[in-house]
Automatic annotation (TrEMBL):
Residue stretches of biased makeup (Low complexity): 589-606
GO terms, biological process: 'de novo' cotranslational protein folding; protein stabilization
Compartments in which it is found: Cytoplasm; Membrane; Nucleus
Chain intervals with Acidic residues compositional bias: 445-455
Similarity remark: Belongs to the TEL2 family.
Protein name per Swiss-Prot or TrEMBL: Telomere length regulation protein TEL2 homolog
Keywords: Cytoplasm, Membrane, Nucleus
Domain TELO2 ARM repeat: 286-384
Organism taxonomic ancestry: Eukaryota, Metazoa, Chordata, Craniata, Vertebrata
UniProt domain Telomere length regulation protein conserved: residue ranges: 471-579
Chain intervals for the UniProt region annotation (Disordered): 405-470, 586-608
Length: 787
């Protein structure tokens, strides 16, 4: 045993024995003063290593012993409160975190008011007023040693595994992989990998066995921790060579690792530093099996860099990040690899250069110029060099340095001609040079820069030019919303979907359920103006087009698992809006009005000639009419389309409101959704006025209201009262009396109670309105007694 630890342990054991058994005040106080040596508060302080051992191992045990001895008789062993003051000094001057824990433990463990509880509460007040809580928090802010120590233990186990493998024994390191993943997923990559990576970097150099052990260690890390582990390794590794030795070909064996390294860290995040980017992309370039991933990453980076939607919506910092990654990729790839995809890469480059040079922000334009110079020189070396004039600063020099071609260990060593940095000019002279020698300039710079004689174009009537990626068919929209990574196509599909659904009802019915599912789960990928409105209108259009199937599906999903409250309320909104559209008078007639015009009608797309408009206006003014009828067109009449599908909207929503699921409890915490459900059911009831299914709907709705009539939330009660009014307005009076007499009597008594006693003013007002509707039926509901 360590002699320091042994000496401290013996001293503490002797002190505990004296404190527990002695009744001699002088003996006790001398023991406590000897223990204070380990706190560094006396002239004869213990050595630093003994103080550390005491604080780490024995201090809390001493404190618990002191708490256990606290009593009036024990404190009176010495006069003038000497013992109490010395007793309190251990809590006020020792390690603050342990003292605070013992204080709270003793207070929480007190079963009833007592002398000990009073003294501990007073000591806690002194502890707080002395600023000891700040010491507690400061100690927690310091670096914890657990994870570095854990990293050292992992290294020790790995050494044992390597020794066993050399001896011919089989070993499994899956448990170590889980430990590593657990530490990383809790955000401790820096601590544990800060110990592992420097040692493994040395051990794997020229040692195939250690490399294989490292590869197996990272391969067995669980998928849920793979992203945290890989990001930590990329940050901790000093270069791509070390990263390649530690990871091997992990990206070709694990789909999760490939997604993190080639998608997540490049496109979805932009927090990696430039050295991290160089390590990541250099790792992909270090082996022939990984280089196809580097080529694919370059294609996707260039496509994203050139996307006009990304230029509009992505932050400038992310655009710089993608530009740096693109330049690093170009530096690592050889001539043959670039020429194999030359046409595709040039197309993306030209589109991006045009979008960036047209942008109004100078930093965006400058990024386009730098990348265009480097990429064009690498992709089209035989052509004239493309040069721009822009301000050269630290960022520009850094990006041009990243573009310098470099050889790799296991790949083509040929590279394109080095791209020399372009001398910086003034930031306002961002003009493109055709590649030939620059013509001499005449006049001063101020004369050349003057634009006083330039006449501006009138752009007041210009509109945004829409992309040609707008889908023409419903199925194209469905594909773009589910599988497309093109942001412009995704946005165009969302904007076009409502019109295509209404235009092609037959095609919509073939994929209506798939469309409803996609729209219900659709999340905003880019900053699309009016996204929620576009999504909702498209879903309403799909529901109206295939009402029975889609409404039944949406109502079933309202009670399904794994939906947020926002999605459930979206379902209610869509069902109410679709029902309103289906019940609109003359909806069927509007489609027929789009047919060929009658004999005297004007074609919809034609324009009335000017002379004809003048003649008609003169005739109108000169004509005298003795009786002027209505000049407006009469509202088109037609059957209520909601009549035949109302049951699909209404009854599934009522079936399971009292059955909670894991994430959804209408009768529990989710009362906001319950109130919205009550309002939606009332709206559906009102829209089913005079339909065949109105009576069973009214009966079921009144039963729903009766079951929840005493609900404590005012918003829910308001929905229930509105639902009662909807029943009274939608079901004919004779049917109410014939089929629902008992329900109406129950509703009347409840409404009267609410109108008089409810605490919410809106509830009282709604109850009075419902009672007024019932007043018309009072003579039939409550027959007057015979005179």
């Amino acid at each position: 045993m360590d002699p320091v630890a042994s000496a401290v342990r013996l001293a503490v054991q002797e002190a505990l024995h004296i404190l527990s058994s002695s009744e001699d005040g002088g003996h006790i106080i001398s023991t406590l003063r000897s223990l204070r040596r380990y706190l560094g508060e006396t002239e004869t302080q213990a050595p630093a290593e003994e103080q550390e051992e005491f604080s780490r191992t024995h201090f809390s045990t001493i404190l618990r012993c002191l708490v256990g001895k606290l009593s009036p008789d024990w404190l009176d062993l010495l006069p003038d409160g000497q013992l109490e003051e010395l007793w309190a000094s251990f809590f006020l001057e020792g390690p603050a975190d342990q003292a605070f824990l013992v204080l709270m433990e003793s207070i929480e463990g007190a079963a009833s008011p007592s002398f000990r509880l009073m003294k501990m509460a007073q000591l806690l007040a002194r502890f707080l007023s002395a600023g000891r809580m700040a010491a507690v928090m400061e100690g927690q802010c310091g670096q914890q040693n657990y994870f570095p120590l854990l990293g050292e233990e992992v290294l020790r186990v790995l050494q044992a595994v390597v020794d066993s493998l050399r001896g011919g024994l089989d070993c499994s390191i899956s448990f170590l992989s889980q430990v590593l993943g657990k530490a990383c997923v809790h955000g401790r990559q820096k601590e544990i990998l800060g110990v592992l990576v420097p040692r493994l970097m040395v051990l794997t150099q020229g040692n195939c066995l250690w490399q294989r052990v490292c590869w197996r260690l990272v391969e067995r890390v669980p998928d849920r921790a793979m992203e945290a582990m890989l990001k930590g390794l990329v940050e901790a590794s000093p270069g791509p060579e070390v990263l390649s030795r530690l990871l091997g070909n992990l990206v070709t064996k694990s789909k999760k690792a490939q997604f993190v390294m080639t998608r997540k860290l490049l496109f979805l995040q932009y927090s990696c530093s430039t050295p991290m980017l160089q390590s990541l992309l250099g790792y992909l370039a270090m082996d022939s099996q990984r280089r196809p991933l580097l080529v694919q990453a370059l294609k996707e980076l260039l496509e994203t860099w050139g996307s006009s939607s990304a230029i509009r919506h992505a932050p400038l910092e992310q655009q710089r990040y993608i530009s740096k990654a693109l330049l690093i990729c170009l530096a690592h790839l050889g001539e043959a690899e670039l020429q194999a995809s030359r046409d595709e890469l040039l197309a993306s480059l030209m589109e991006g250069v045009k979008s960036r040079l047209d942008n109004s922000l100078p930093p965006v334009r400058r990024l386009g110029m730098i990348v265009a110079e480097v990429a064009s020189a690498r992709l089209h070396p035989e052509g004239p060099p493309l040069k721009f004039q822009y301000e050269e600063d630290d960022l520009t020099r850094e990006m041009l340095a990243l573009a310098a071609p470099r050889p790799v260990a296991d790949g083509p060593l040929e590279a394109g001609p080095p791209v020399a940095p372009v001398g910086g000019e003034s930031p306002d002279q961002e003009t493109v040079d055709s590649g030939g020698p620059q013509a001499g300039r005449e006049g001063s710079d101020s004369e050349l820069d003057s634009d006083d004689e330039l006449v501006p174009y009138d752009m007041s009537g210009d509109g945004e030019q829409r992309s040609s990626k707008t889908p023409a068919y419903v199925r194209d929209c469905l594909e773009a919303l589910t599988a497309s990574e093109d942001w412009e196509r995704w946005e165009a599909a969302l904007r076009a979907l409502e019109g295509l659904v209404l235009k092609s009802p037959a095609a919509t019915r073939e994929v209506s359920l798939e469309l409803a599912k996609v729209l219900l789960h659709l999340e905003e990928k880019t900053a699309v103006a009016g996204f929620e409105g576009l999504r909702q209108r498209a879903l309403v259009a799909v529901t109206v087009t295939d009402a029975a199937r889609v409404a039944e599906y949406l109502a079933a999903q309202f009670y399904a698992l794994n939906y947020s409250l926002r999605q459930r309320m979206d379902i209610l909104d869509v069902l109410a809006l679709a029902a309103q559209e289906l019940s609109r008078p003359g909806r069927l007639g509007r489609a027929s009005q789009r047919g060929p015009p009658g004999p005297g009608s004007q074609p919809s797309g034609a324009t009335v000639p000017a002379w004809q408009a003048v003649v008609e206006e003169r005739v109108r003014r000169k004509t005298r009419r003795f009786c002027k009828g209505s000049t407006g067109r009469a509202a088109a009449a037609g059957p209520n389309e909601f009549n035949v599908v109302a049951g699909y909207f209404f009854f599934p929503l009522l079936q399971r409101f009292d059955r909670p699921v894991v994430t959804f409890d209408l009768l529990g915490d989710d009362q906001l959704v319950l109130g919205r459900l009550a309002h939606t059911l009332g709206a559906l009831m009102y829209l089913a006025v005079n339909t065949a299914v109105a009576v069973p709907m009214g009966k079921a709705l009144l039963e729903f209201v009766w079951a929840l009539r005493f609900h404590g939330d005012a918003y829910v009660r308001q929905g229930l009262l509105s639902a009662v009014s909807s029943v009274l307005l939608s079901v004919p009076a004779e049917r109410l009396l014939a089929d629902l007499p008992d329900e109406l009597l129950e509703a009347r008594s409840w409404l009267a109670d609410v109108a008089e006693q409810d605490a919410d003013e809106d509830c009282r007002l709604l109850a009075v309105k419902a009672l007024l509707l019932l007043e018309k039926l009072r003579d039939r509901l409550l027959p007057l007694s015979s005179p």
